[in-house]
Design brief:
A: seven-stranded mixed β-sheet, four-stranded antiparallel β-sheet, globular, B: seven-stranded mixed β-sheet, 11 strands
Chain lengths: 106, 121
C-alpha cells in the first residue's frame, strides 16, 4: 500500500491550525493508520493510532480522522515545538508502509 | 519504564555484513513485537522487518528478504538485525521500535535511539 502525504511542506505561524493529509493507494483495513512526529536528530514519536486515538501524553491539539483511503492529522493551534516532520503509517496490510512525510515549519 | 537501547554506529565496506542490537527492558515481549525501521539520509521511514517472542519466522520487507536475519535472544531481551551484502544504498539510521501487539500488523509506541550504518569504500 503506497501512502501519499500532502502537502510536502507547510510554513505556518504559532497559533494557526494545520491539516495534514495521507491518502492510501488502496483501502486500509479498518482504521489501521498511525501518525508520527519526528524532530531533527531524534527518533519518531507516536502521536495517533487507530486513525483517531491519541497516544499517551500527546496534547489534545493533535487529532486524527479518516477511514478507508483518506486520513487526516489536524493540529489545532500550532506551538513552536510542533516544528517537525510528520509521517503516516498503515498497518492494515503487509508490508507495513509509511508516507513520504510532511515538513511543518513554524 | 520501557527502554530500547541500540548498539553504536558502524562503518562498513560494500559487500560486508553488519549486526545491530536492540536491548529492551521494562516490558514482556510476549505481548509485543520488535520491528526494525530504517531512514536513509534526508529520506523517510522504511519498514525493514518484525519479530516476536516464540515466533521462529520473522517477517521481512521483500526489499531485504534475502539479505536479512532478525533474531530475538530471550535471556537478554535483545533483538538483533543482521544485514548482509551491504551496498551504499544501505547507508541509513536503523531504528528498533516496539510494536504494540505480537501481530505483524502493528504500529510502534517506543523507539530506540537509532544506529547509523555507513557503507563506503
Amino acid at each position: 500500500v503506497v501512502l501519499t502525504q500532502s502537502p510536502g511542506t507547510l510554513s505556518l505561524s504559532p497559533g494557526e491550525g494545520a491539516t495534514l493529509f495521507c491518502r492510501a493507494s488502496q483501502g486500509i483495513g479498518g482504521t489501521s493508520v498511525a501518525w508520527y512526529q519526528q524532530k531533527r536528530g531524534q527518533a519518531p514519536r507516536l502521536l495517533i493510532y487507530g486513525a483517531a486515538t491519541r497516544a499517551t501524553g500527546i496534547p489534545d491539539r493533535f487529532s486524527g480522522s479518516g477511514s478507508g483511503t483518506d486520513f487526516t492529522l489536524t493540529i489545532s493551534s500550532l506551538e513552536p515545538e510542533d516544528s517537525a516532520m510528520y509521517y503516516c503509517q498503515q498497518y492494515g496490510n503487509i508490508p507495513l508502509t509509511f508516507g513520504g512525510g510532511t515538513n511543518v515549519g513554524i | 519504564q520501557v527502554h530500547l537501547v541500540q548498539s553504536g554506529a558502524e562503518v562498513k565496506k560494500p559487500g560486508a555484513s553488519v549486526t545491530v542490537s536492540c536491548k529492551t527492558s521494562g516490558f514482556n515481549i510476549s505481548h509485543y513485537s520488535i520491528n526494525w525501521v530504517r531512514q536513509a539520509p534526508g529520506r523517510g521511514l522504511d519498514w525493514v522487518g518484525w519479530i516476536s517472542d516464540g515466533n521462529v519466522f520473522p517477517q521481512f520487507s521483500l526489499n531485504f528478504r534475502d539479505r536479512l536475519t532478525i533474531t530475538w535472544d530471550a535471556p537478554t531481551a535483545t533483538a538483533y538485525m543482521d544485514l548482509r551484502s551491504l551496498t551504499s544504498e544501505d547507508t541509513a539510521i536503523y531504528y528498533c521500535a516496539r510494536g504494540i501487539s505480537a501481530s505483524v500488523s502493528t504500529h510502534f509506541d517506543h523507539w530506540g535511539q537509532g544506529t547509523l550504518v555507513s557503507v563506503s569504500s
